[in-house]
Amino acid sequence: MNYLFINNALSGTGGSRVILNLAAILIDFGHKVSIVIDRDDNIDYEIPVGVDVYLWGVDEVSPISADRVGGEYSNERRKYRQVSLIKNIKQALRPFKAKFVFIKEILFNSRYEASMTSFYSKNKFDVVVNSNVYIGLDRHIFLSRLFSEKYYVNFHNSPKEIFSRRDFFVRSSIGELFGRSKLLGVSQGIIDELNQYRELDGAQKTAIYNVFDFSLIKGRSEEKVTEFLGDYIISVSSLTQRKRVERLIYSFEIISKSHPNLKLLILGDGELKSSLQNIVEECSLKDKVVFYGFCSNPYPLIASARLLMLASDSEGLPTVIIEALSLGIPVISTNCPTGPEEILAPWGNDYLISLHQPESAIVSELAEKANRVLESDYDREYVIKNSQLERFERDRVIAKWESLNV
Predict the structure, then answer these.
(1) Which CATH number fits domain 214-390: 2.60.40.420, 3.40.50.300, 3.40.50.2000, 2.102.10.10?
(2) pTM for this entry
(3) pLDDT per residue as tens digits for the range 243-290
């Protein structure tokens, strides 16, 4: 089959990593995969061999040359992302920026449509999957008509959280945008939320988990890490508001009283880095909290951790939880919509923290349950066996992708 994935960018985020992992495994299964993006200035991952990447421009959908892809964040971009003042200004102007983007799309809409129509005429795709549910929203109406029954919209995060954002600026209703499309969700929780919108009653909805190559993850986890970090808890997420990394810092302040030699390793980058560093200073944890930044291969660091913690307000299907469990690392997570409860179901509520309580109680419960796991010192094989990870195995998940439009 010939698959086309449409996304805003391939930056250093979990969503981009999920799409590239899926593309690589589809290639392994003998399928053809293309990815079309809106931006080519922030491609931070290696592109799998055999995957064609294109830029959706006003006049054409053009291939992106190999020398433009892959690698770590550049120093210039790292420096830029760490300037909190600029980030704060951008955050304040985001709603206006969204309106400007839509005005620009009105002016160039016919040219965007013509370039994609020409691209499709040259590449007869069997399945087209659009993960853009934040940017270029009004394109969904055009794309659903162009690709018809081949067109899917894939939700990687909680729909309720997406639709409630201040910058979710649309001229059309949710029903007009997505009602003509087939809808995918990376967890059953996402599908359950979509089913609550009456405007989407007529849309076909299917849950397909993110795909994992556990043998590859294990192999990459065995790569050497140059620095010795000692014992640590790990967090892997972008440093954004939704991820609520500050909860982990406050809870670690409590944890470190019982485990004074333990560190908190934070993998990821984002606009809140400076403010999170300030919280670390206020909590007198400067020598115990390490901001590691973006890492293209986080698996050796995850595999050496005592525990992985996640404290988000919302997710889709947080891949890092599944990756940690596959390496035998236990996980504590907020019971946010959607995903953590589904993944951690075999472990029960002892590994989930309710968000329906005061913030101080959330922090205390994170610390309490983390301490309990640290004291249990689980065997890695026990963690893997008890997590029922066969749900996410590549053969089972790819079979669902191959059943689309069959």
Answers:
(1) 3.40.50.2000
(2) 0.83
(3) 999 999 999 999 999 999 999 999 999 999 999 999 999 999 999 999
